[in-house]
Amino acid sequence: MRTITAGLFIALDGVVENPQDWHFPYYNDEMGAAVDAQLGTADTLLLGRKTYDSFAGAWPEREAAGGPDADFGRKLGDARKIVVSRSDHTFTWRNSEVLQGDLIAGVTALKQEPGGDIAISGSVSVVRALLGAGLLDELHLLVHPIAVRSGMRLFDDAEAALPLTLLRSTAFRTGVVHLVYGPGHHLEGDYDQAKQHLAHDED
């Protein structure tokens, strides 16, 4: 079964909207390697329409320009790109197609197909839906040491809590922390249990 990973730039207060306005000062070689490992090694990209439009409006030109980001642009261009959209779409970026039918059913079928990893970048509504359906294998959060204080946050209000399991973590020189979460399970406990772990003065 194929693995689905999602990567997001996120502020300390949970904001994920418009990262281009606040995250570039923290982008260094460590973050570049983390992004490439999550996104650049996948053979399929699953993208929301807004994220796709943003990528398609920038990366083909960067690839053609032949600058230092051209290799990454080529990787994205060569990958199969599946766009989650309810409207008709005209594609100019190679290897692009619309996800047919229901999101959850379509992604469930996609996981069963032969192939490599499936990667998501941004596309918050898609990430939320796949987390809720238990279809996301890894959630990569690049947590920036800044509180943006306005904008859409990753997790919206919902009736049920969403437990996750920390798989690994890495602190970068810039203060960004790369956290990788997988599916979790609900824990049980109360104060009576917790108080057993309070520090006690030695007599």
UniProtKB/TrEMBL annotation:
One of its GO terms (molecular function) is 5-amino-6-(5-phosphoribosylamino)uracil reductase activity. GO terms for biological process: riboflavin biosynthetic process. InterPro entries: DHFR-like_dom_sf, RibDG_C, Riboflavin_Biosynth_HTPR. Pfam families: RibD_C. Gene3D superfamilies: Dihydrofolate Reductase, subunit A. Residues 3-177 form the Bacterial bifunctional deaminase-reductase C-terminal domain. This is Bacterial bifunctional deaminase-reductase C-terminal domain-containing protein. It comes from Nocardia cerradoensis. The lineage of its organism: Bacteria, Bacillati, Actinomycetota, Actinomycetes, Mycobacteriales.
